[in-house]
Amino acid sequence: xxxxxxxxxxxxxxxxxxxxxxxxxxxxxxxxxxxxxxxxxxxxxxxxxxxxxxxxxxxxxxxxxxxxxxxxxxxxxxxxxxxxxxxxxxxxxxxxxxxxxxxxxxxxxxxxxxxxxxxxxxxxxxxxxxxxxxxxxxxxxxxxxxxxxxxxxxxxxxxxxxxxxxxxxxxxxxxxxxxxxxxxxxxxxxxxxxxxxxxxxxxxxxxxxxxxxxxxxxxxxxxxxxxxxxxxxxxxxxxxxxxxxxxxxxxxxxxxxxxxxxxxxxxxxxxxxxxxxxxxxxxxxxxxxxxxxxxxxxxxxxxxxxxxxxxxxxxxxxxxxxxxxxxxxxxxxxxxxxxxxxxxxxxxxxxxxxxxxxxxxxxxxxxxxxxxxxxxxxxxxxxxxxxxxxxxxxxxxxxxxxxxxxxxxxxxxxxxxxxxxxxxxxxxxxxxxxxxxxxxxxxxxxxxxxxxxxxxxxxxxxxxxxxxxxxxxxxxxxxxxxxxxxxxxxxxxxxxxxxxxxxxxxxxxxxxxxxxxxxx
Length: 520
Known about the structure:
4-stranded antiparallel β-sheet; 8-stranded mixed β-sheet; D-Maltodextrin-Binding Protein, domain 2; 4 domains; globular; Dipeptide-binding Protein, domain 1
């Protein structure tokens, strides 16, 4: 009940909940009006943002190859930093809805094939230029271009035209897409001057911070655009060093705690473990178009050779839930229930392995930056696969360069995904045949057609049935092994105020540095 009251109190202070509604909700939880008012007064004192100082985060997921071009955002540090200096058309709320940002309104006509975005007045880029409808249109055009390397290219494939009419941007689609507004929350679609066509690496946006430091793989910093406090991200890929930085006060928040260390870290005075269940998962990716993984019997053998329950209990220490070899869990609306949970079956795995005709070892690449506990997960998988007569060789790759030289490059590797706002967006980003981030090289025309049909289907029961068929195709024919869905596990120190968990992604969906503050 305490966490719910904290969230309700914070909602009042942010203007998202009226005082009257707070008192009503508090009464439903069994509190008297006097007690509720006392709690709200205390929260107001504790949650008042403090001006000044330098707020620091120690984050895993930074590389020397990182870029300020939001189209190329791949790992955690660029994801978090872009949300400090950039602004978006819309933003996902904690309850799964949308909050308009640069967009004042988004509406559709023609059965969700034509969408109109009204651009809000009075928003400025850091260079003093006013954000216009032309900037919004150019941003969408750049990411949707067929030659684009944007991580959002896969979700924008259906765009056939973008034009400007006054303060409005009109986007035409080849087929209906009821989820189009949610696509605009994708973290690559940061609005830039002229869409970033002139200089995508300039780091000029309309977010709360102006970029002052950009040292890829080391640190990134910004000064508050609205005169509050400065912020800095220090890249700390080593988990032990990250924990030590929080303990010493060098940083006020960290991401990706190793579940095995949570019980120790939470004993530190003033430290709060910020864990929340969400849509993130830690996959083992096989390229379906590359030998020996182009053989579905071998892929099935490798799926059945994984002891998921052991991995969940040992690697995540229970901070998660079992995966079933498709990228969707019950956190998504229209989740397909009733799909049998794939279990560890070394005997059946051995049968599929023999049927595949493969012989010799199989190389799996991983790194400590793939996800917390990735090395342990690889070793446990190696042991369970051996029970099926399958030899897995593990190559531990360096963290720097992992996301540019191993992920989506090597045919069998480990990774992480943060999930997306809708099932269609998740599938379009990572599993459609023409998606740039198709890190399993799963290319199935039937699946692609179902994805297009699902986007335009407004009947929820019919849409849910399509999603189930899509999940079964990925599960049984794809190159994706999903042992578990993880909780996001961050931690904040005693001088960090205003932290509110967000189920969409780590670090308050990337906004922790923008919305937290240094306490006295």
